[in-house]
Records
---
Amino acid sequence: MVFSILALLAVCISICIKERKKSLYVQSLNCFFEAIYDFLISAFTGAILSIINLIRTFIFINKNKFSKSAYLIILFIFEGIIIINCYFSWTGWISLLPTIGSMIRSYCLWQSNMKLVRISGITTGILYGSYYIYYHGWFMVLGDFILLLTGIYTLYKNDIRKSNDEVIRN
């Protein structure tokens, strides 16, 4: 339970941060805490994905150290690893939920646009929340629901309302 609360706090804070690099550092804490929690509840597809996501996040933090083509290859490598993990840790159709969620999240974190990071918070909340309902991980379900609400709120506050305000001013 402690790890699910820590994961929740980290992911909600990460999508509220406006600077990409700081957001990714906090996101890496979420991946770490979620991996521990997933192993404890025997949700192995999610646990392995959390470890993969932790490594991915650290690489994405250092985006500027890679050429554009190398950075694109890194994205494809992580997307491929996520698919391979789904195959090897397959426990039924339920395994697709965290897989699809991680693929969307990887793409959004790979980009520099924080709006996409906030959108991925919404998709993660829906897909992982559904996954944890299946495993009766109620604290993570609550956490993903809060992530969903936080994602919607920060998307509205930072992107939709801001865009509407700019249209009104012009």
---
Amino acid sequence: MASKNMRVSWLIGGVVGLFFLLGLFWDVWQSYSARVSLERDVKIAAEAGAKFLPYKLKDARDAALTVLKSRGLTPKPEYISLSPDGKSMKVSVISEVTAYVAWIFGSRSMKFEASSTAEVSIKGGGPVDQLNLKDVSFALKAYSDFKPGQNVIIWSSGDSDVPSYAIKAWKITEPSILKVNDKASLSPMDSLMSFKEEKVYYVAMLEDIEGNRAKIKGFAAFKSTGLNAQARLTGQFIRTHIENKPKNMLPEINDFGLVGGGAAEIKIH
């Protein structure tokens, strides 16, 4: 009788153990399936957002969130992170599945994260040949040893004690469309306070300055680090791409680092 009861106990234990193992296998399988599905979803979201990089960052974010929503996920802004230059976007989502057996070892749900990163590089392009006046912050006389990466100090052209060696900022008053090799009207700039914010400003580079007229030689990008104690603008010229396809191919002499056009090369991983 005892032997029979033992066999029954072993049988019951075996059945319970089998159900436990099957339940554990199910938990692992559903977690794996959900992870694979989520990884596919975030990759598709990254691909959708990448089409708007590197210039339309809001559109890139919205496109990625729309894809996540369409695939049954609750879109949250924190799921999307964009680099300041717009050349990379990461879609990262944390999800969970209910644990039917694995909760014995801890939580009643199993959490996991899936992420995908889109990286964009621009190949080709050329010097920007025209900009709207409203997009140009100030103008400088082009100097012979100019090159992107230089740290410079910029003075107000309206200062009374500006030395001859100083790099002076001018205000352009017209025309409304600034084109390389066209003439522009200038006026002195009395203060640089409006450029104290640390960001990138577009600059017109000038030559043949005569009175309040000058010829536009090209366009540059100036990354400001703010104003120094003397209220002069500090920062460096950088090389950067903008969404502005040149209408005319310009020679190297007109290249001051602000480049437009080219083709986007997208990598998703």
